[in-house]
Amino acid sequence: MKIKRYILLLAMPLLFILLTGVKADAHVKYTTTPKSLRGTWGEKGGQVLRIKKYSFHVIYKKGIETNSVYLSGKKISNGATELGVQSPKSKYSVYKRGYWDIGYNGSCFAFYLKRVKHNGRTALKSFTPQMGPKTKVHIDYYYKK
Question: CA 109 to CA 31: how far, in whole Å?
Fold first, then answer.
């Protein structure tokens, strides 16, 4: 009789959980890039931008040397992803001229990009702000590959 009572006592919480349908939210919100900027874009100087739904990849080519930076919107460390994306309409956006701020989350490594038509072709316009009194604003164009 005592054994049946103990089994019933242990089974009650399990039965309660099964009947109430406790749900655990295991979905993690990933950082996504804007659809208008996705694709492979190349610059005349050899720099290539590969923008996918959850990643941003910059490939620097100079002669035979190649360096690259890969940022993932899925990799999570300390509750944040590597990839940071700011909308031009965000209240935190530094440049509100239609440029998306894409780069390493929480750092100064960022590209300010916007999709434009340049020389009759679709291009990404990259805006590099003035960093000091002796520097100028720098603009690059990356064409769709």
Answer: 17
Reported as type and span, the H/E element at residue 38 is none
Q: Mapping DSSP to helix (H, G, I), strand (E, B) and coil, where does residue 87 land?
A: coil
For 24-75, what is each residue's pLDDT tens digit?
Answer: 445 567 888 999 999 999 987 788 999 999 998 988 887 777 888 888 888 7
> Amino acid identity, residue 51?
I
Collapse the DSSP code of 20 into the 3-class scheme (helix H, G, I; strand E, B; otherwise coil) and give the result.
helix
- From 36, 46, 37, 44, select the one nearest 68 (Cα to Cα): 46
Give the Cα separation of 21 and 31 in Å (integer): 30
- The helix or strand, by DSSP H or E, that contains position 16, with its residue range, turns out to be helix 2-20
| End-to-end CA, the chain | 77
**Rounded Cα–Cα distance for residues 38 and 123 (Å):** 11
7 membership: H or E segment, kind and range: helix 2-20
Rounded to 5 degrees, what are φ and ψ at 117? -105, 125
Q: What is the pTM of this model?
A: 0.71
Which of 65, 38, 4 lies closest to 122 in space, CA to CA? 38
